[in-house]
Amino acid sequence: PHEIDDLVDRALARRLARVDDLVHAVERSAEFRRHPGRVTLAARLARRGVTGAPAPSVLESRMARLLAGEGLPAPKAELVWGPQRRYRLDFAYPALRLAIEVDGFAFHFTPEQMRADNHRSNTLTAAGWMILRYNWWDVTYEPERVAGQIAAAYRMLAA
């Protein structure tokens, strides 16, 4: 299963496959219905938080697997929130007002993008949300720390 996760991550990042294509193959494609890997692929897609929303980034996919492995309830992925529903939260526990954001280099490195991220974070914080932000290094090389921080925040807010 972990090899499948890595293959899917690379295929999505290189735009060799789209999440919609994978979902179609798993759910509706008659020629794939009897393939022995179909059930495993379906389970791995569910674990990465495929919800019919835009395709998750490689970093979002890794975070989804990290959260699933922590034993916490599954967060909402790609939650749309805010004035005019203008913000997309990578992962959220809306009842607790806990947002988990993952910032990949591709979409969060310019001054304009950082300013937009800060504005969104400030708006969420002013509305009573706790925002936890992580980058590629955090999720890839320090997953235990990340998982521990998220679990602690979840338990604190749930208490």
Q: What characteristics describe this protein?
A:
single chain; 159 residues; alpha+beta; globular
Written description of the protein model:
The protein is of the alpha+beta class and 159 residues long. The protein is built from 7 helices and 4 strands, in the order ααααβββαβαα. It has helices at 2-13, 19-27, 38-47, 58-69, 111-126, 136-141, 143-158; strands at 76-81, 87-93, 98-103, 130-135. Strands 1-2-3-4 form a 4-stranded mixed beta sheet, sandwiched between helices. Helix 2 (19-27) packs across helix 3. The longest helix is centred in the C-terminal third of the chain and has 16 residues, at 111-126.
Could you outline the blueprint of secondary structure elements for this entry?
Elements: H1 2-13, H2 19-27, H3 38-47, H4 58-69, E1 76-81, E2 87-93, E3 98-103, H5 111-126, E4 130-135, H6 136-141, H7 143-158
Parallel strand pairs: 3-4
Antiparallel strand pairs: 1-2, 2-3
Helix pairs in contact: 2-3
